[in-house]
Write a structure and sequence with these properties.
This protein is an all-beta fold and about 725 residues long. It starts with 6 loop residues before the first strand and ends with a strand. The relative contact order is 0.14.
Length: about 725
């Protein structure tokens, strides 16, 4: 690479990265915007919802008051020296302005959409199809890559950053997304609309600690806590949509290193139409646990690597073809893994995802197609037994939607997935205990109609049908949502049915029954974007035909459950440089206990989850903090023991009748920008993770005769890390 032509970002770590970072070396927190003498160019396009370019629109960077106009194709180029956060505003005569908050410098094309002739409130939106949003806030929560790395305690982990969304319970210190009383397996993860089989890597007995994708591979990530539209199927509780970053408008690169790993990536603008992004990463938590200590015996600590590439080609002004591929591997071992704390568990895994996608927004009818293959393989070692799991999914999604006109918007789509699961078990002598191979197929069709009933009211109705040879049944899922807004007040209500096919390992030697949930929600919101905003959303869920594991890994089908809860979010801003966000979720969830068959408190029923995030900018200094609290997770206690010829057996109390102690954690990060009129710009940063060294209890183990209970504490101690980023023009 010719470094005189490309911008190089060199990350030099002066301290230690926290143990919770897994495979990531966290990026710095960028402080308040500060002008610099080095000129860079922001490029983009302004369009109508129909795809028609907007000629002569004014583009302004609010903070610096730099302006430019769009040309005859709707495109613009805005030279600026601004570094940090900034608001880009697009205006055209007769239209309300459209604004987007960015972090400068920007290496991707900016797309702004201006409506024309549509009576509407600027804050009234439905984005994306089937997800319902008012004033940029709803059960749909969007994150940019910088949002991910700037979330204290997230450690550059997409899933950890998504856990701040209303409706997600902090069950443990892992990255699993437990949405509104549902299990982590009930949230479906899509990358460019193709399913990702293993979005989080298992790192200890109480949770996932490895990140799924490096956030700088992504353009954004969105979590829908229920109420998602008919375009998304085979999910009960939530949908995570990750969109990979497209071709860069200019070439950049970065290098990073820490005691826990190293990574390198580059974004290369090959031609104006062709761009490439590549990333490689290796990680090893061994030095980290040695430096900060460990609350559980890792042997070996988690270690692994990632490699990814993205190629995007602009087939025309308004269409593109993109290929994304990522390969990952990890291994780890841990002691005290079973109920008696006597067993060692070890695992190694490899996984990969390749997606080819095409989008075209040239005309009012906009087609999109995504096809991909996801593969996951894991080998596990338990005392005397080796287990192997291989999963593969070939997934095709195609849809066409008509851009909303004055009143109506239409979307139609089809989906087909072939899923193959292979499970095998052997004893250490080499004898085969079991070996199964279960290929299944699922096909679906869906349609959705969006009707602007009034300028202040919008109705979205959808219907989805799926059929699988594994269930030999056709499921129908109707979904309806109504959004209204009058002034600063908004109301969103929805009701819908959702089905999910149980994994083959959960159903053996029989026809599977689709799992089902019916959910209704109603949300009230007041406030405007950029100011004080409050949203309160209540919901009710009812599950049927659940398939679940027993503690001894048996399978029970026909389970039921219900959940009611309230998710609330308050955002406020003090001046231009101080922001705060408070998220509070209240939940009461019940499920059939697979051991006893009775309806009991669900293991994911976290009564209260509270997260308080703050950000304050003092000149060139930026301070971020996060305080998390969650009610302890329910668990089934051992209340006695029985002596048999085969040994001592435990006697269990009421299913999930007791709770672990409450979960507390606090994280703080600080960064300082050193900007020079000539030459490079530097950002120095430091972070304190788990400030009060809270030893949260994740579970319990017992001694051999079940008379002594021992707490298993969270695997990560308090840790301090610091570093610097050097930006070279």
């Amino acid at each position: 690479m010719n470094l005189t032509r490309h911008r190089l970002v060199l990350l030099v770590l002066a301290g230690l990265a926290p143990a919770a970072t897994g495979a990531q070396s966290p990026a710095p927190m960028l402080p308040a915007p500060t002008p610099s003498a080095a000129q860079r160019v922001v490029q983009g396009v302004v369009r109508r919802p129909t795809g028609q370019p907007v000629i002569g629109a004014t583009i302004e960077l609010f903070e610096s008051e730099e302006r430019t106009l769009t040309d005859s194709t709707g495109r613009f180029r805005l030279p600026t020296a601004w570094i940090g956060r900034g608001m880009l505003v697009a205006r055209a005569l007769g239209d309300p302005p459209v604004q987007v908050e960015l972090t400068f410098p920007v290496d991707s094309e900016v797309v702004l959409v201006l409506p024309k002739g549509v009576p509407r409130l600027a804050s009234f939106t439905v984005l994306p199809p089937g997800e319902f949003r008012l004033s940029n806030a709803s059960s749909s929560e969007a994150l940019s890559p910088l949002d991910v790395v700037q979330t204290p305690g997230a450690a550059a982990n997409v899933a950890r950053a998504l856990q701040i969304a209303p409706g997600v319970s902090n069950v443990d210190e892992g990255t699993g997304l437990f949405v509104r009383g549902g299990d982590v397996t009930e949230t479906r993860v899509l990358v460019d609309d193709v399913v990702m089989l293993s979005p989080a890597r298992f790192g200890n007995p109480t949770g996932h600690v490895g990140a799924s994708l490096n956030p700088f591979l992504l353009a954004n990530a969105t979590l829908s806590a229920g109420a998602f539209g008919a375009a998304y199927g085979n999910a009960l509780s939530g949908v995570v949509r990750m969109e990979t970053a497209g071709r860069p408008s200019r070439s950049t690169g970065s290098l990073s290193a820490s005691i826990g790993g190293a990574s390198a990536n580059a974004a290369i603008a090959v031609t104006p139409k062709l761009g490439v992004r590549v990333l490689a990463n290796i990680s090893d938590l061994g030095p980290l646990t040695a430096a900060f200590g460990q609350a559980q015996p890792y042997d070996p600590p988690p270690r692994g690597g990632d490699a990814a590439v993205t190629l995007e080609y602009a087939t025309s002004t308004h269409s593109r073809l993109k290929l994304f591929s990522v390969q990952q591997q990890q291994e780890f071992g841990v002691g005290a893994a079973d109920i008696t704390g006597a067993s060692r568990y070890a695992a190694s895994s490899t996984e990969g995802l390749t997606v080819l996608s095409w989008r075209d927004t040239t005309y009012a009818w906009r087609p999109s197609v995504s096809a991909g293959r996801s593969r996951f393989s894991r080998d596990e070692q338990l005392p005397g037994i080796d287990l192997g799991t291989t999963l593969a999914s070939d997934h095709l999604v195609a849809s066409v939607r008509r851009a909303p006109g004055r009143r109506l918007g239409v979307m139609l789509g089809v989906e087909h997935e072939r899923f193959t699961a292979t499970y095998r078990g052997t004893v250490t002598t080499g004898s085969t205990l079991f070996s199964t191979n279960t290929p299944t197929t699922r096909s679906g069709v869906h349609g959705e109609l969006t009707w602007r009933v009034r300028p202040w009211a919008q109705l979205t109705t959808g219907l989805r049908a799926d059929r699988s040879n594994y269930t030999q049944r056709t499921t129908l899922d109707p979904r309806v949502a109504l959004a209204t807004q009058r002034g600063p007040w908004g109301i969103v209500a929805s009701v819908g049915a959702y089905h999910q096919i149980p994994e083959p390992i959960l159903v053996r030697d029989t026809i599977a029954e689709p799992m089902r949930v019916v959910q209704s929600t109603i949300a009230l919101e007041r406030g405007q974007m950029g100011g004080t905003r409050l949203r309160i959303e209540a919901y009710a869920r009812r599950w049927q035909s659940l398939a679940q594991f027993t503690p001894s890994f048996g399978v029970v089908t026909g389970g039921e459950g219900d959940a009611v809860g309230v998710d609330s979010e308050l955002r406020w801003q003090f001046g231009k440089r101080s922001r705060s966000r408070l998220v509070w979720s209240v939940l009461d969830a019940r499920r059939t206990d697979p051991r006893s068959g009775v309806l009991a408190t669900a293991p994911t029923s976290i009564t209260h989850s509270v997260i308080w995030l703050t950000e304050r900018e003092l000149g060139r200094l930026s301070i971020n903090s996060a305080l998390r609290y969650a009610t302890g997770r329910p668990f089934t206690n051992i209340v006695g023991r029985t002596s048999t010829a085969n040994g001592v057996l435990p006697e269990y109390g009421a299913p999930n009748g007791e709770r672990l102690p409450g979960y507390w954690r606090s994280d703080v990060s600080v960064s300082w920008l050193l900007a020079r009129r000539t030459g490079p710009t530097a950002v120095f940063w430091a972070s304190l993770s788990n400030v009060f060294d809270r030893r949260n209890i994740m579970r319990y183990t017992w001694n051999a005769d079940y008379t002594v209970r021992t707490p298993v504490r969270s695997p990560f101690n308090r840790s301090i890390y610091a570093g610097a980023t050097l930006l070279l023009p």
